[in-house]
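stage 2 :: seqdesign
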């Protein structure tokens, strides 16, 4: 979002994908898998459309089909021991993207301040700006990218309306500990802020030691927090755009109020298939994790061999690499050359930061590039080959 001209610009994902296509390149920019989700899941969506099971071909109830909300509640109970009333504590959304938009619009009034950890998923800044709120950030910095809890506490003012949490985190792969989440919930409760916890990477855990907890499993969180999930990442179907919001009836109802007017409802057949997957993933989560882990290790080793300093993540789709080992340029400049000269698309982390960070040449985030490894292993090997040949 460009405040100077009050226009919404094409996202870094669109620009990188377009550049990779123009140069006949390999797109390790936008995070989407190039192997689609399980066949049984896709058949369930096809069956819902052709037999009108559900029934799913006309408008669904605004908050989502009851059986979809029950499946989300059952999933949260099974994985996290969190009890939710599917009737009023679960809301279906058009991907996590709509969940984020509706949540920020619900809780961040114009003139308020929204706190996020930087780097942050780009839609947080854009939606905060559209809400007329100001995004302020607290750093996550290499090599561990841990949230700075003292800095978060210091950043809260009487204007703070929300704290945005994203764990497992895009782009660093950091997984917040329970202690960190407890501290964040405490700070939000003390400051009268609402926590939005974006948990779309919950099933892409690559390091068993780093356990993911939904924010709603933290004592007291139900008073201040909503959690967001998405089927796109969990089931490798990013085009389906099935998301959900969970939390107390009071908070979810406020998000629902906004969501009624952003899409009202979408995707009945996808809700039908995802409800089945949430009830029983038939081993897909574990299988997907194993493939991602191998992809991560392959890409991380290749980038390190090419001379970049690599930060191997505990979760998610992305490896970060510091370009200073191979160039004096910023990651944004290097990424532009990498895609046009070597045909490899990657996302400079500076696209996921505030302008003030981008303008600070001392800030390490300006030298980090994000590479997606949710790709076939021959594609990753090809990308590494192109990068090394070009360097
Ligand atoms: N949050 C984060 C942190 C993401 O990386 C993404 C993109 N995958 C989204 C939200 C959007 O999710 P969806 O595709 O379900 O809209
Ligand atoms: N979440 C994906 C990423 O971070 C992209 C989503 C999008 O294109 N908006 O790469």
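stage 2 :: out
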């Amino acid at each position: 979002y460009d405040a100077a001209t009050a226009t919404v610009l094409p996202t870094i994902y669109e620009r990188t994908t377009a550049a990779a296509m123009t140069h006949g390149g390999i797109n390790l920019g936008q995070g989407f898998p190039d192997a689609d989700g399980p066949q049984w899941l896709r058949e369930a969506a096809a069956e819902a459309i052709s037999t009108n099971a559900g029934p799913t071909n006309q408008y669904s109830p605004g908050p989502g089909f009851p059986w979809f909300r029950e499946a989300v509640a059952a999933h949260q109970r099974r994985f996290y021991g969190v009890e939710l009333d599917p009737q009023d504590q679960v809301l279906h959304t058009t991907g996590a993207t709509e969940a984020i938009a509706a949540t920020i619009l619900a809780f961040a009034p114009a003139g308020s301040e929204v706190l996020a950890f930087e780097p942050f998923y780009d839609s947080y800044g854009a939606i905060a700006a559209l809400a007329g709120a100001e995004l302020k950030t607290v750093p996550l910095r290499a090599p561990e990218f841990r949230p700075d809890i003292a800095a978060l506490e210091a950043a809260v003012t009487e204007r703070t309306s929300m704290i945005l949490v994203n764990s497992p985190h895009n782009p660093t792969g950091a997984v917040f500990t329970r202690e960190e989440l407890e501290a964040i919930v405490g700070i939000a409760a003390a400051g009268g802020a609402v926590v939005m916890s974006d948990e779309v990477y919950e099933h892409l855990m690559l390091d068993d030691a780093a356990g993911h907890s939904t924010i709603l499993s933290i004592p007291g969180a139900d008073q201040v927090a909503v959690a967001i999930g998405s089927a796109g990442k969990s089931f490798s179907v990013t085009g389906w755009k099935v998301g959900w919001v969970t939390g107390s009836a009071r908070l979810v109802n406020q998000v629902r109020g906004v969501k009624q007017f952003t899409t009202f409802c979408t995707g009945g057949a996808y809700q039908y298939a995802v409800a089945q997957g949430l009830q029983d993933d038939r081993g897909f989560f574990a299988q997907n994790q194993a493939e991602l882990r191998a992809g991560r290790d392959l890409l991380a080793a290749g980038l390190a061999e090419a001379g970049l300093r690599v930060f191997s993540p505990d979760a998610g789709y992305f490896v970060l690499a510091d370009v200073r080992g191979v160039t004096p340029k910023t990651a944004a400049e290097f990424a532009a050359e990498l895609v046009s000269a070597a045909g490899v698309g990657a996302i400079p982390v500076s696209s996921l930061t505030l302008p003030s960070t981008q303008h600070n040449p001392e800030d390490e985030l300006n030298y980090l590039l994000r590479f997606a490894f949710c790709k076939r292993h021959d594609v990753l090997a090809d990308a590494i080959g192109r990068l090394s040949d070009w360097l």
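stage 3 :: structure notes
- The chain has two domains: 12-30+284-390, 39-279.
- The pocket of 4'-deoxy-4'-aminopyridoxal-5'-phosphate (ligand 1) is lined by residues 31, 95-97, 121, 166, 170, 198, 200, 230, 232-233, 238, 241, 243 (CB under 6 Å).
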